[in-house]
TrEMBL record:
Keywords: ATP-binding, Cell membrane, Membrane, Nucleotide-binding, Translocase, Transport. The gene is phnC. The keyword Cell membrane applies. InterPro entries: AAA+_ATPase, ABC_transporter-like_ATP-bd, ABC_transporter-like_CS, ABC_transpr_PhnC, MetN_ABC_transporter-like, P-loop_NTPase. Residues 6-249 form the ABC transporter domain. The keyword tRNA processing does not apply. It comes from the Bacteria. GO terms for molecular function: ATP binding. It holds the Pfam family ABC_tran. SUPFAM superfamilies: P-loop containing nucleoside triphosphate hydrolases (SSF52540). This is Phosphonate ABC transporter ATP-binding protein. Transmembrane segments: none annotated.
Length: 268
């Protein structure tokens, strides 16, 4: 499958008088792992939802190669949401269903209405789901009820579900915000593996600088809906952090000197 740039041009979204995203322009090459940082209310979550078209822009455009994403409607929009998988902080699983079935729901976009309602899946799709669970060390949990799993396990189930969409881009909105350090590392290692092994473009909103510096090729920092920084982790200097977070920013920067990857052993 041909890989294409994701390009945001003067992308904006206002809620009343509030500019949640304010004329953001970004060019994201295929296969990049991009961390998006910034204080609460900076516009990070809104920007991801704009890319996935869960929120409609009030200005600007989104292009993926020659496709004008902002113009998509109906079936074409549903296909874009399949190609641009979204992982949420809240996991978005059906807790009463088993893990395997939750993962298989990532295939529903490929099914007709009746098949979707009946949750009918082929043997090939079940094999895909088991393979995704194996990648995320979750095969022993396949027949357990999703609601019985730990938060970290549920987030990895959500990633497996996203993989079954066979996406080209993976968006993750604060995927580790509610997790302990060990589970946060497992989730970030999973996203890095998908980026590296599958060549997927990954955009992830993060609330800690050390995680962004440890895992991302590129860091984009937002404040008041605007891009304040766009560069490599090495370019994220104390002065830049101060501009992003204000006077408290240096404390965040000091935390980032020792990366998550350095503190926590990588998991196989």
């Amino acid at each position: 499958m041909e890989q294409q740039h994701l390009i945001l041009t003067d992308l904006s979204r206002s809620f009343g008088a509030t500019k949640a995203v304010d004329r953001v322009t970004l060019d994201i090459p295929p296969g990049q792992f991009v961390g998006i940082i910034g204080p609460s209310g900076a516009g990070k979550s809104t920007m991801l939802r704009l890319i996935n078209r869960l929120v409609e822009p009030t200005g600007g455009s989104i292009h993926h190669g020659a496709t004008d994403v902002t113009a998509l409607r109906g079936r074409a929009l549903r296909q874009w949401r399949r190609d641009c998988a979204m992982i949420f902080q809240q996991f978005n699983l059906i807790e009463r269903l088993d893990v395997l079935t939750n993962v298989l729901t990532g295939r529903l976009a490929e099914h007709g209405f009746l098949s979707s309602m009946a949750m009918r899946f082929s043997d090939a799709e079940r094999a895909m789901a088991i393979q995704a669970l194996e990648r995320l060390d979750l095969v022993p949990q396949a027949l357990k009820r999703a609601g019985a799993l730990s938060g970290g396990q549920q987030q990895r189930v959500a990633i497996a579900k996203a993989l079954l969409q066979r996406p080209r881009i993976m968006l993750a909105d604060e995927p580790i915000a509610s997790l302990d350090p060990g589970n946060a590392t497992r989730v970030m290692e999973a996203l890095r593996s998908i980026n590296r092994d599958d060549g997927l473009t990954v955009l992830v909103n993060l609330h800690t600088l050390d995680t962004a510096r440890a895992y991302c090729h590129r860091i984009v920092a937002m404040r008041f809906g605007r891009i304040m920084f766009d560069g490599t982790p090495a370019q994220l200097t104390p002065d830049v952090v101060r501009d992003i977070y204000g006077s408290e920013g240096l404390a965040h920067f000091d935390e980032g000197v020792t990366s998550t990857a350095a503190r926590v052993p990588a998991l196989a």
